[in-house]
């Protein structure tokens, strides 16, 4: 397999897999919700925004990319908040890594940014 085709295949698998992870993170929040009935929590808004941004990103809309970067920043802030309060948990490192990857992978320096251009990476394969 040519290097360019292999890179695009690995990028495609990463693209769909990471979006699957983000959708799972948002959906699992609602499946495991422990709030009171009828009460809208801030975490519900976060999870709903995450799901909406991931869907918009899968549709290759720029609004999805921008929302995912915003969600990444909020996720990093939420993961660092317990550290600020002095209640560090090792799981926070995983959260910070996921949200940092979310923030940086949808930035202008990422190859995924090209997916939002009119031609996109996947269109370049056909030529």
What tags apply to this protein structure?
0% strand; single chain; globular; mainly alpha; 5 helices; 127 residues
Explain this structure.
This protein is mostly helical. It is built from 5 helices and no strands. Helix 3 runs antiparallel to helix 4.
Question: Strands, helices and their partners?
Answer:
Elements: H1 3-31, H2 42-58, H3 62-85, H4 91-105, H5 120-125
How many helices?
5
Determine the mean pLDDT. 78
Taking the sheet with the most strands, its summary is: none
Task: Give the strand content.
Answer: under 5%
Structural class: mainly alpha
Helix content: over 70%
- Overall, the morphology is globular
Radius of gyration: 17 Å
N to C succession of SSEs: HHHHH
| Low-pLDDT windows of residues | none
Q: What is the total tally of β strands?
A: 0
First-residue to last-residue Cα separation: 17 Å
Describe the structure in brief.
With 127 residues, this protein is mainly alpha-helical. It has five helices and no strands.
């Amino acid at each position: 397999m040519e290097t360019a085709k292999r890179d695009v295949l690995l990028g495609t698998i990463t693209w769909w897999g990471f979006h699957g992870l983000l959708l799972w993170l948002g959906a699992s929040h609602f499946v495991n919700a422990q709030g009171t009935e009828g009460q809208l929590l801030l975490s519900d808004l976060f999870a709903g925004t995450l799901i909406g941004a991931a869907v918009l990103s899968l549709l290759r809309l720029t609004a999805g990319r921008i929302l995912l970067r915003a969600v990444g920043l909020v996720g990093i802030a939420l993961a660092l908040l317990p550290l600020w309060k002095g209640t560090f948990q090792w799981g926070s490192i995983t959260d910070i890594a996921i949200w940092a990857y979310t923030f940086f992978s949808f930035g202008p320096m990422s190859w995924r940014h090209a997916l939002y251009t009119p031609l996109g990476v996947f269109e370049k394969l056909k030529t």
